[in-house]
Design goal:
The chain is an alpha/beta fold. About 20% of the residues lie in helices and about 40% in strands. The protein has a single domain, classed as 3-Layer(bba) Sandwich (D-tyrosyl-trna(Tyr) Deacylase, Chain: A), CATH 3.50.80. Helix 3 links the parallel strand 6 and strand 7. The two termini are about 15 Å apart. The relative contact order is 0.30.
């Protein structure tokens, strides 16, 4: 499971050109799911994201977590995070999970995250337009297969 996390001051998503969801301060999480992902990956990644200390404290140091700041999450499924560009100019998505499996894990990720914080999410498999103001900018990439 691969996530691109962006610290935002606000973000929103349009689905099929209609306003759907918006958050204020927090993270936009672009989530890519692969065939080998499990519930263990989900729980590990959620904990990593909600406890990541990248929000500024009173001394302007990145020292606070999403939980400390009561920030929000906007979770967007994005299979293209598992693109392989080794050969040619057309990416291969062979490592991206098949839609039936990916949708199940995506929903599990949403459900696990919801236990800890306020969140909004995109629609799995839909065409989405994500708008955000990246605060910092702060962008972090995490892969659950690279824990050590």
């Amino acid at each position: 499971m691969r996530a691109v996390i962006q610290r935002v001051s606000k973000a929103s998503v349009l689905i099929n050109q209609e306003f759907t969801e918006a958050i204020d301060q927090g993270f936009v999480v672009l989530l890519g799911i692969e065939n080998e992902d499990t519930s263990t990956d989900v729980k590990w990644l959620v904990q990593k994201i909600i406890n990541m200390r990248v929000f500024n404290d009173s001394e302007d140091k990145m020292n606070l977590s999403l939980m400390d700041t009561e920030g929000e999450l906007l979770i967007i499924s994005q299979f293209t995070l598992h693109a392989s560009t080794k050969k040619g100019n057309r990416p291969s998505f062979i490592k991206a999970a098949k839609p039936e499996f990916a949708k199940k894990i995506y929903q599990e990720f949403i459900d696990e995250s919801r236990k800890h914080c306020n969140l909004k999410n995109g629609k799995f498999g839909a065409h989405m337009e994500v708008s955000l103001i990246n605060n910092g900018p702060v962008t972090i990439i995490i892969d659950s297969k690279n824990r050590v």
